[in-house]
Amino acid sequence: MTIGTIDRTPPPFFRQGPSALTKLMFCSALALLLMVADTRFRITQPVRAAAAAVLHPMQRTLLIPIDLISDTRDYLLGLHAALGREEAARIELARQSERAMRAEQLLLENKRLRSLLELRPSLNVKSQAAQILYEAPDPYSRKVVIDRGSSHGIAVASPVVNEAGVLGQVTRVYLSSAEVTLLTDKEAAIPVLNSRTLVRSAAFGGNPGGAMELRFMAGNADVQVGDTLTTSGVDGIYPPGLAVAKVAAVDRKVDSGFARILLTPAARADDVRHVLVLEPTGLQLPSRPEAPAEGASKPAGRKAGPRK
């Protein structure tokens, strides 16, 4: 091979183009031109919109795991918050229910106390308010214990009433409490007056279901269902005119000389908390004058004047 036939052009690897500074200046000018042109003429808006349309499905696909994790976290946090609010709502509902029950009890108690206050001026005897503490532990009797005793001036045989009528009578007195025997007790008895016929009789307790009985009434006695029985006041204990019971049933037996008459008490101690304790009417009567001592000198009479 002759020397003249050798290719003396440099290989592509050693070819030299524009310098790096030139390329930097060109790219900077081109970028500045594109930015100005895009700001003024919006020339890249279609290209940008097309690229966004092409890349949108890919972006949504890549965001699925992130959205799933975020939704799961929000669901768990929301579930925990909802359970907490539900528990708080239940507690608040229980509190509101308790407050409503207390308010209803206080309203009922206030109503009864107002009735007692309205009842006191209509009574002509001394009275004082008392509160029922508990029922007596004896299962064979109907008795309650009140929070007033001998230190408060309570005496044995004092009548106990509420706004509905007579409840019973004080049978035992302690220092700070007293025992009240109810009219429905088997040993209780009270003289009554029929408001319609003005006939006196006696009512007794001890019947099943808390009923009372009007005993020793003739089979043809004028007693009807619905008659109101009040205290007669002849016993020196109960003031006259207090409600005692109403006639519930009249059984006139042919083979017996007496009628069986059942009564419904006007006042029941099952739902009573406050009562009035009255002073027995016998204690308000004036004391009897003392008898003169034997051998006392009689007052001297007039001296007889001289006869004319």
Summarize the structure.
With about 300 residues, the protein is an alpha+beta fold. It contains two helices and twelve strands.
Could you walk me through the main structural features you see in this protein, from its secondary elements to its overall organization?
With 308 residues, the protein is α+β, with helices and mostly antiparallel strands. It has a domain at 127-284: Rod shape-determining protein MreC, domain 1 (Thrombin, subunit H, Beta Barrel), CATH 2.40.10. Helix content is 31%, strand content 23%. The protein has helices spanning 20-41, 45-119; strands at 127-135, 143-146, 159-161, 166-173, 178-182, 189-194, 200-204, 212-215, 228-231, 243-252, 259-265, 274-278. The strands form two sheets. Strands 1-2-5-4-3-12 form a six-stranded antiparallel barrel. Strands 6-7-8-11-10-9 form a six-stranded antiparallel β-barrel. A hairpin with a 5-residue loop joins β6 (189-194) and β7 (200-204). The longest helix is centred in the first third of the chain and has 75 residues, at 45-119. The protein is rod-shaped.
